[in-house]
Each structure stands twice: as C-alpha cells, then as structure tokens.
Specification:
The chain is an alpha+beta fold. It folds into 3 domains: 47 residues, Helicase, Ruva Protein, domain 3 (Orthogonal Bundle); 92 residues, Elongation factor Ts, dimerisation domain (Tetrahydropterin Synthase, Chain A); 38 residues.
Length: 197
C-alpha cells in the first residue's frame, strides 16, 4: 500500500531543504512520508550533485566586506559561482555575507586543508604525539589523527562548524547552496582584519 503525499508535506520539506518540488516529492514517496528520512535523502543527493559540479569553472561571484559591530573586526571575502545570474541572487548574496560573518567570528586561517603548510601540520602531529606518549601505538595513531582533525576544524574554513548552525560544517552549508542554485560555488579567498593585530 502506498502512502499519499500531500502538497503541504512537499511544501514543508521544500521550505526546510530548499530542494526542488519534484525532488521533495520523490524523497517523500521513497520514504513513505517520513520527513527526517526525506531530508537525509535530499542531503545525500545534494552532496552528490555538488561533487559533480566541483569541476565546473566558477569565475563569477562577489567580493563582500563584513565589518563586525564595533568596527574592531573586518573581513573581505571572494566567493565564486558560475554565472552572474546566481551572483545577483539574494540567496547567494546572503551566503557570502554570512560567510564573512562566520570568518569574523571563527577566525579561520585557510580556506581548504591543502593550503595548510606541511610544517604546521608536522608540528601539530609532534605535539599531539608527545601528549599521548606511553599509550599503545595503535591508540596513539588514532588519537593523533583525531587531534589533527580537530586542528583542521579550528583553522580551515570549510571544516569549521558553521557559527549560525553549529551542527553543520561550512562545507555542508556551501554544498546545500550548490544543490539549491545548481552551480559550483567556491570560496576563493578571504582576509580577516582585527584592530591592533
């Protein structure tokens, strides 16, 4: 017996995820109307479609400035997309502004992991290894890798928990925007200024 999916259920799912109507309906049919499972399905599809778009060139976009209240912290950020149509979209503009706000609050140093200097990574590994000296080698390796993951989440923008929705990473927020716009979106670069530093 199939479950009847109402227009209200589809609208509710669409407002929660930003996915298209037909994608929402298919996800609800697939999960027999279970909203939570449908959200999971849509998130997986969004991540898959974002991976497909990652190779597409993103040369349009915005450079946005964000000055935090009080004027003691400021950010310049460049976020690229594929077309100027998306760059003029209010959702894209809000994303760029929110990323600037996130950078002001969370103080990342790099956009991606591959930008972290190998010397910094090696130094962090040495510190983590010294902190767990005396434990079994298999445990040491797992603990050190865990500490390196935590290190990345403090200095790499895409790995950080998003300040407005801490249960999601910045990368997940961008992936959701990619799924919604249908275009590749990349944070190209940023600079964070802090008074007196």
């Amino acid at each position: 017996m199939s479950t009847t999916i109402t227009a209200q259920q589809v609208n509710d799912l669409r407002s929660q995820t930003g996915a298209g109507l037909m994608d929402c309906k298919r996800a609800l049919v697939e999960t027999s109307g279970n909203i939570e499972e449908a959200i999971t399905i849509l998130r997986k599809k969004g991540a898959a479609s974002a991976a497909k778009r990652a190779d597409r060139e993103a040369k349009e976009g915005l450079i946005e400035s964000y000055i935090h209240v009080g004027g003691k912290v400021g950010v310049l950020i460049e976020v690229n997309c594929e077309t100027d149509f998306v760059a003029r979209n209010d959702d894209f503009k809000a994303l760029v502004r929110n990323l600037g706000m996130h950078i002001a609050a969370a103080n990342p140093l790099y956009v991606t992991r591959d930008q972290v200097p190998e010397a910094d990574l090696a130094a962090e590994r040495d510190i983590a290894s010294a902190q767990v000296a005396g434990k079994p080698p298999a445990a040491v390796q797992k603990i050190v890798e865990g500490k390196i993951e935590k290190f990345y989440s403090t200095i790499v923008l895409l790995d950080q928990p998003y300040v407005k929705v801490p249960e999601k990473s910045v990368k997940e927020i961008i992936t959701e925007a990619i799924a919604k716009t249908g275009e590749n979106i990349q944070v190209r670069r940023f600079v964070r200024f802090q008074l007196g530093s």
